[in-house]
Amino acid sequence: MDRRTFILAGASLAAAALTVTACGTRTESGGAGSGGSGGGATKTAKIGVIAPLSGDLSAMGLGIRNSVELAIRQANESNAIPGWKLEMAAEDDQAAPDTGRNAATKLGGDTSVVAVVGPLNSSVGQALQPVLSGAGIALISPANTNPTLTKGADLANPKRTYENYFRTCTTDDVQGPFAAKYLLDTGVKEVATIHDKKAYGQGLVNAFTEYFTANGGTISAAETINPEDKDFSAVISKVQGGNPKAVYYGGEYPVAGPMSQQMKGAGLNVPLMGGDGIYDGKFIELAGPNSTGDLATSVGAPVDTLDSAKAFVDAYKAAGFSDGYSAYGAYAYDAANAIIDALKKSLADANDVASARKATIEEIGKVSFSGATGDVAFDEFGDSKARVLTAYKVEGGKWTPAKTEDFK
Amino acid sequence: MDLFFQQLVNGLSLGSLYGLIAVGYTVVYGIVQLINFAHGEVFMIGAFGAFTTWLAIGQPQEWSWPMAIFVMLPLMVLGGMIAAVGIALVMERFAYRPLRGAPRLAPLISAIGVSIALQEAVRLGYGLIPGFPSAKSAIPFPHVTGITGETVNLGALSVQKSAVFTIGALVVCTIFLGWFVNKTKMGRAMKATSQDPDTARLMGINVDRVIMVAFAVGAALAAVAGVAHGLRYNNIDFKMGFLSGLKAFAAAVLGGIGNINGAVVGGLVLGMVEVFATTYIPGQFGSSAWKDVWAFILLILVLVFRPQGLLGARVVDRA
């Protein structure tokens, strides 16, 4: 009896696993079938994704995963790499460096993984770099904005640390000053800063402060909070004493949303401004109706107004994902396409994936094409050559672009 | 001076939230000597229960304020209480009662296990129910017209109406609990059981029932705190119970674990310390990031110099 139950359980588990895999690959195999037009065995290469698929930042993480999946589907449908079929291997890093490192180890050990898109957080990126570098796998982040990831710890003497690391977004040393310039241009001279002490938030606030004070602004208060905090009443009351005309926050939307709501509740009716980490619909949801007038900067031009991005947005909508593409979807899509572009050369004569990994890294360094976010190409550090940024304002419960600029 | 009073109000309202949760730790500890580490999750379930009730009454968005405050809010509190008390009773029956005779470490570990299990169950399971949002990231709490996002101005002070709700809830709950424990038969049975469960049993007190009531009372208050949290921060999430639960546990110990008034005082003191450390300690040590350090240093100091806590009585070893 016991044995029978055991076998039954095992069989149903196996059946369930099969059903799940079938679901996951259904659309892809359909696409490949129509494009492959019979003949020749196809080999499989996997593009990994490491992003927060659960937890506070999952809105952004799921946008990244879906956008990569979209790029892979399209590549398979158009038979972009003859003789090869692409698959996605998505791992959840829960926005935690340790979980991310485990995911990278897992993907690094999979001999069919050729390159990875991700992660979202700069701190996770830091943890992934050595692991994937050791495995010789290219990593393109759509969202890591901390400058040290490409240029090394000493920014005065930039030195590329990891040959396999690239990114499609601009960095905080551009984004912080851009926000400062925007505020100064709109006549805001006194700002209070708050950050969450993480690599991203601190870097952003430092870059912001430097530019803001050098160009005639004053910082009325500089505060820090813990990323797990829920209650900001004390810090808000303290900041309020200096009568700032805006609050610049370095951090992400799970904290920034409630903070904006509590600020307005406490009578501090000035805009909260942040970087790309708060540029998400979830921010407005968490901040409530009082978030009108809050500001965010994000990398690139607004995706839904760019002609180059229209095709991406339409395809994303047509693909029927349940989550939006969020702040980094277009960057993840471009990252995946940069990989696919490189694979066209590196996989052309390769017999297996593992031997093509090194060549893929080299080819990614040379890619140059017009992507959803604009021109995609990497400089000698692996940073995106595009330095276009946009400031967004919350209006009528939505982020609306306020100003786009090619910031030098 | 304005800043001082503003921060006093901030500290009071934050402390009230801790106090409401801390009472649950204290009542259970007072009777079964168990630190129910899953109590923070009961608080979280209370908030989700209230949210679920709001979904069930048709997600009213724009009810006028009398309807929102006198119909929707009480219904949500009630729904939260039912969910929290239900979970607490199930937890008591299946995770703690079987271990009642076991060494103290066993129920403690069981409590930690229950805590993690409940968090994960909500994280993974809540969104699976048709029509419910996924709880994998924060869910915006219902907008209660007349409270959410509104403030009362008293001179230069601005007090959020959600803070008024929290402080008011603590006052009402403490008065109710004082009456319940001192004036009702069940309350006296609780006191007797906390002094000596064996003798209480010999006197004809149904100890199992008393323990269930203790869990239920703590859970009901945690549910009120869950609603207060939702109103205050506008959103709830599956891990909200962890940190709040830890703080409330610290508050209960600070006030003297086992003592209901102590839990309230401990909560308020902890809230005040967090707020005033942020305001009045100079330099980077005064930043909000350090507030937990000061709060826990105070806890350690109290435990070193007054191990029974602020209002606790010295524990006499039972013969």
Automatic annotation (TrEMBL), chain A:
UniProt record similarity statement: Belongs to the leucine-binding protein family.
UniProt name for this protein: Branched-chain amino acid ABC transporter substrate-binding protein
Domain Leucine-binding protein: residue ranges: 45-386
Signal peptide positions on this chain: 1-22
Listed Pfam families: Peripla_BP_6
PANTHER family listed in its UniProt record: AMINO ACID BINDING PROTEIN, LEU/ILE/VAL-BINDING ABC TRANSPORTER SUBUNIT
Lineage, highest ranks first: Bacteria, Bacillati, Actinomycetota, Actinomycetes, Propionibacteriales
Matching CDD domains: PBP1_ABC_LIVBP-like
Calcium in keyword set: no
Automatic annotation (TrEMBL), chain B:
Regions crossing the membrane: 12-32, 39-57, 63-90, 163-181, 210-228, 249-273, 293-316
Record membrane topology: Multi-pass membrane protein
Keyword hit for Cell membrane: yes
Classification via Gene3D superfamilies: Helix hairpin bin (1.10.287.710)
Keywords, in A-Z order: Amino-acid transport, Cell inner membrane, Cell membrane, Membrane, Transmembrane, Transmembrane helix, Transport
Family as reported in the entry's similarity comment: Belongs to the binding-protein-dependent transport system permease family. LivHM subfamily.
Protein name as it appears in the record: Branched-chain amino acid ABC transporter permease
Provenance organism: Ammonicoccus fulvus
